[in-house]
Amino acid sequence: MAWVSLKIEAQDNNADLISDTLMELGALSAIIEDANAETIDEQPIFGEPGDPPPGIWQQNLVSALFDEGVDVAAVIQALQQTAKLGALNYTTETIQEQDWVRATQSQFDPIKITDTLWIVPTWHESPNPDAINIVLDPGLAFGTGSHPTTHLCLAWLTKTVSAGSSVLDYGCGSGILAIAAKKLGADEVVGTDIDTQAIQSSLYNAEQNQVEAEFYDANQYQSKEFDIVVANILSSALSVLAPALAKSCKAGGKIALSGILREQEAAVSAIYAEWFDMSAPQHMDAWVLLTGTKKCAT
Ligand SMILES: C[S@@+](CC[C@H](N)C(=O)[O-])C[C@H]1O[C@@H](n2cnc3c(N)ncnc32)[C@H](O)[C@@H]1O
């Protein structure tokens, strides 16, 4: 069995129309992607809680899948007529049947965070069995270690957690930061998230890694003080949560904040400077890690 993949160049004002029309014309699936994805011109678009839904990219690729034998020229002609479009740039490719599970798994290799910390999918051997290895498969909750924000937080935890530390992971997603903290020697580790799927994933991943950590729905979480607070959430949420996160950190304790884009760095840092002595920001791609030490009460 085989399929035909049809990719059509689209602008921000016609990508939805092309995608919807292709589905009406018999596509098995249709998705819109950034035409510049994984290039220097990639356009990061992220929704912030409370903001209007983000738009789509300026340059798009609409990718649709059809059964083998589809008459691509006829589809393009019908698309132009139905959606009232002029000439379209497109490419086609035949996709052969394959072992999809294996193909998906092959996209996820072990991720090296530092020499001593790796994230390893269950279907891989660890490249360094002597390192701290977090066993984690991609799932429904955010946090596989591949995203720069998670990477920055993990690397910071390796330098910050010491034996017996207490750690709060606010916005725990897959639980990856909480699990890392525990494996790095933390004593009490608590994770919290507004997404129930994230809590379930965190509990499952903690069990897979044979670590004990508590995970709570953010609405049920009872605030208390920790030595270390790490929160990898978007900047608008970090701004709103600043008083609560500051309250959760002991005087002299450490905080790490990520999910912040470079252009948001100054504003978030200024908010947290009310409670924390902020350190120099760290960067990876478009993303920022802000860290600080909680000021002692005067
Ligand atoms: C970018 S993911 C980070 C996941 C993981 N900690 C990591 O570093 O990969 C952000 C997580 O924060 C959660 N989140 C967003 N807003 C939140 C809020 N106000 N309170 C608690 N969790 C929140 C989301 O559900 C999501 O799981």
UniProtKB/TrEMBL annotation:
SUPFAM superfamilies cross-referenced by the UniProt entry: S-adenosyl-L-methionine-dependent methyltransferases (SSF53335)
Catalytic function, reaction form: L-lysyl-[protein] + 3 S-adenosyl-L-methionine = N(6),N(6),N(6)-trimethyl-L-lysyl-[protein] + 3 S-adenosyl-L-homocysteine + 3 H(+)
Broad class of the protein's primary localization: cytoplasm
Functional summary from the UniProt entry: Methylates ribosomal protein L11.
Residue ranges of coiled coil: none
Organism: Methylotenera oryzisoli
Protein location: Cytoplasm
Organismal lineage: Bacteria, Pseudomonadati, Pseudomonadota, Betaproteobacteria, Nitrosomonadales
Keyword field contains Methyltransferase: yes
Originating gene: prmA
Name of the protein in question: Ribosomal protein L11 methyltransferase
Molecular function GO terms recorded: protein-lysine N-methyltransferase activity
